[in-house]
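[step 3/7] inverse_fold.run input=structure_tokens len=407
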């Protein structure tokens, strides 16, 4: 007889005792008084199985229903049930599902908590939470009472592999012209109070918030603004919008954050400088040397010198590719004053949201062999945004997440 066998046997016995005790306690919870509405029928003592942290328990409650409408169980709402899960087990299951595929999540719960729940049941729970969570994430309150000097907003997009039915009629970049992914838009909100000894900005700990979904930019922008205001945007001395150059990114900045200083991510701008050098100079070595010089000029806000040298090297008739890179730099002139930004002690890179695309989205939704429906992916994205946002997880679970419909 091993110690592990003793432990597992004892845990199973304690869980069974806890399950019976919880079942008895729930049976004694007073049924909320609910007078039937006109045309509504009351069906007494409908029995169901509810999953708890101790395993499945039986519950009897009244059901109210009117023809042509979805019914309701007042006791379920009073208990805070989410689907057919108690709040405690729902929180535990959703946390594992936000980090692991459903099959692995089921195995993890059985291994660590001794509860056996089918992966499909965990998936259904996540779908229920996916309907409730987004409306709360945009209301996540600011992490500190004291306003931060700088408030940053940064948005980006990343593709998520989808089932074929979700991609019908959508164009893609592949050779066949068919889409393989759908773009998820992700926003990262954070504050900055300090700089280090070398004058480089330091992101405030526990200040980062993520918000992501499949919405179009016209709908996504207002959601990001709502979330930013809830997190303290209006109190900050300076709002700063960091972007990678995509047109929809700057449109969100223009329409939803008109007072923010717009900064083009230095590393994206630098890539275009490298592209310009390669377009101007055919010799790789020469192009590389000029790219280094022009990157230095860009870093020191000497864009006019950079452009003049590039135009002179391209002569009077620049190629289409040269002109494209020149137009890009010229068009973002007001967003590339990097010397001034550094003197102010501001961030000049959008690395926070780019890392967020990998951590929030990629780590869970882009694993080998995964293909998603929009609803399934959106539910996981909401949970991961809550889990990885400062204060987001606890705040989410303080809300009423019950999706029991009213009749």
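[step 3/7] decode complete -> sequence:
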């Amino acid at each position: 007889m091993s110690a592990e066998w003793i432990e597992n046997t004892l845990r199973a016995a304690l869980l069974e005792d806890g399950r019976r005790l919880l079942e008895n306690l729930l049976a004694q919870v007073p049924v909320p008084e609910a007078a039937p509405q006109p045309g509504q029928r009351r069906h007494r003592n409908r029995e169901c199985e509810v999953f708890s942290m101790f395993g499945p328990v039986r519950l009897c409650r009244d059901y109210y229903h009117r023809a042509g409408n979805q019914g309701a169980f007042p006791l379920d709402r009073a208990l805070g049930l989410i689907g057919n899960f108690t709040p405690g087990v729902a929180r535990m299951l959703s946390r594992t599902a936000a980090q692991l595929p459903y099959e692995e999540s089921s195995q993890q719960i059985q291994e660590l908590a001794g509860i056996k729940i089918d992966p499909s049941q965990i998936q259904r729970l996540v779908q229920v939470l996916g309907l409730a969570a987004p409306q709360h994430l945009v209301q996540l309150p600011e992490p500190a009472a004291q306003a931060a000097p700088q408030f940053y907003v940064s948005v980006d997009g990343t593709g998520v592999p989808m089932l074929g039915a979700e991609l019908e009629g959508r164009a893609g970049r592949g050779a066949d012209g068919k889409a393989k992914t759908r773009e998820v838009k992700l926003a990262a909100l954070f504050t900055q109070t300090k700089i280090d000894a070398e004058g480089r900005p330091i992101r405030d700990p526990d200040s980062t918030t993520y918000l992501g979904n499949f919405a179009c930019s016209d709908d996504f922008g207002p959601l990001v603004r709502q979330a930013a205001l809830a997190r303290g945007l209006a109190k900050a001395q300076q709002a700063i919008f960091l972007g990678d150059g995509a047109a929809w990114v700057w449109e969100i900045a223009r329409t939803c954050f008109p007072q923010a200083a717009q900064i083009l991510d230095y590393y994206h701008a630098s890539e275009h400088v490298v592209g310009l050098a390669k377009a101007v100079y055919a010799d790789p070595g020469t192009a590389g040397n000029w790219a280094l010089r022009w990157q230095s000029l860009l870093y020191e806000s000497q864009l006019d010198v950079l452009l003049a040298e590039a135009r002179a090297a391209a002569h009077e008739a620049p190629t289409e590719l040269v002109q494209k890179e020149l137009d890009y730099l010229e068009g973002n002139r007001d967003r590339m004053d990097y010397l001034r930004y550094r003197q102010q002690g501001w961030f000049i890179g959008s690395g926070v949201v780019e890392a967020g695309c990998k951590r929030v989205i990629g780590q869970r939704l882009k694993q080998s062999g995964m293909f998603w429906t929009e609803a399934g992916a959106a539910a996981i994205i909401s949970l991961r945004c809550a889990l990885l946002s400062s204060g987001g997880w606890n705040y989410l679970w303080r809300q009423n997440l019950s999706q029991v419909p009213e009749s």
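[step 4/7] annotate
Residues 267-335 form one domain.
The chain has three domains: 3-137, 150-265+349-390, 267-335.
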